[in-house]
Each structure stands twice: as C-alpha cells, then as structure tokens.
Amino acid sequence: MPDSSTDAGVLLREVDGLLRVQLVATPFGMPRRWRRPPAVRLARGEWLRWQINYRFTGSSGGEWAYRLDTLNIVHGPARPDLFLGTPTRYVNELASLR
Prior knowledge:
The chain is mainly β and 98 residues long. It has strands at 9-15, 18-24, 40-42, 47-57, 64-74, 89-93.
C-alpha cells in the first residue's frame, strides 16, 4: 500500500468476486495526465503491477525532483516471493520527464 503521507492513493472495491483497483495520481506532479488508464479488475489469485512517474518543481530555485511509484497488489493470499515474478496484469504510466 502506498505511504499514506503522500498525495497519491489507491481506490479498492470488491464487486462480484473481482477486486477493482484504480491508482490515484498526484495532482502536483508533471507531466499532467489528462487521459488515464481505466481501473483494473483482478480475480482471486491474480496480481497487478502499476507504475507511474512524476517530475516536481521545487519551491526555491526551481530544482526538479523525480518520483517513481510502483503498486504491487494481489487479490487473495500470496506466496512470499509472488512479486518477484511476472504480474498477471501490468499498467505502465511511465512518461518522459524532460
């Protein structure tokens, strides 16, 4: 689960045995993402890796900072080494951060 002190988040909801997962992007990072991928639905035993990156401009001096968020989530019980393998679903929101 992402750090709760950050401005990003995850919306989770289980409907008809499927887990609906939607990553909430920070409104403060660049580039702006006007079109986002739809929520992902996971059946029991499936797992998702969702990656998104950002560039932030500092308040003093205009220095840039960069951040990469990676969400790994499984629906149901998991082996300890599960996230070392290939995910069932992968969402790539990595952007060019010039």
